[in-house]
Amino acid sequence: MNLRIGLTGGIGSGKSTVAAMLVELGAHLVDTDAIARELTLPGGAAMPAIVAAFGPEVQTPDGALDRPRMREIVFHDPAAKQRLEAILHPMIREQTEARAALAGHGQVVVFDVPLLAESKGWRERVDRILVVDCSEERQIERVQSRSGWPADAVQRVMAQQATRAQRLAIADDVIRNEELSLPDLKRAVAEVWANWPRFD
Ligand code: ADP
């Protein structure tokens, strides 16, 4: 058996940094965002079904999903969003489990799920949920310095994500990444790691 941890946090919270620290401690990381992206790259497993459902115009010349075009379609049409999700979600789930199955005996499996609080069904799929939390001001500041985005672009993404309160409501463990230096964050991650139960 493997302990299964769902890791989430708003954009800029430090979730990816925490994921990397957990890997250093020995976790087996499953990056659900990377899986979702791979499914819609050129030759991606979801592309035939997406093209069948939405037509060849949602494909770039090299056969990847034309993201801006698709975003435009689902923005104006909630039913299209549902159709897209009906194609992608089962595939993401299958791939996620396939990668989780590669974990070693007794290894802690960490599922990095940016939209865990927004998605149905995750609670039942993991033993614990770890939320990386910080203030919205800090989120904006970090994404601005990481990616050079203007503040309003960060705020637009944040507006589409769950609120801090919604994430905290589902958390079993919280790392408050507000005033911590990176070495402090590492210590906080190690403490959470040490307190998790282990299954044989
Ligand atoms: P997320 O995955 O939640 O969007 P990241 O882990 O990429 O966020 O963190 C956003 C940025 O902030 C990165 O450049 C990261 O190095 C930096 N960062 C995160 N936490 C800290 C911290 N405690 N001290 C300094 N920089 C941090």
Automatic annotation (TrEMBL):
Chief place of localization: cytoplasm
Domain of life (superkingdom): Bacteria
Pathway where this protein functions: Cofactor biosynthesis; coenzyme A biosynthesis; CoA from (R)-pantothenate: step 5/5
Keywords: ATP-binding, Coenzyme A biosynthesis, Cytoplasm, Kinase, Nucleotide-binding, Transferase
CDD domains given in the database record: DPCK
Catalyzed reactions per annotation: 3'-dephospho-CoA + ATP = ADP + CoA + H(+)
Protein EC: 2.7.1.24
Enzyme class: transferase
Residues at which ATP binds: G12, S13, G14, K15, S16, T17
Pfam families tied to this protein: CoaE
Molecular function via GO: dephospho-CoA kinase activity
Compartments reported by the entry: Cytoplasm
InterPro entries in the cross-refs: Depp_CoAkinase, P-loop_NTPase
Family: Belongs to the CoaE family.
Record NCBIfam families: dephospho-CoA kinase
Function: Catalyzes the phosphorylation of the 3'-hydroxyl group of dephosphocoenzyme A to form coenzyme A.
Protein name as annotated: Dephospho-CoA kinase
Gene name linked to the record: coaE
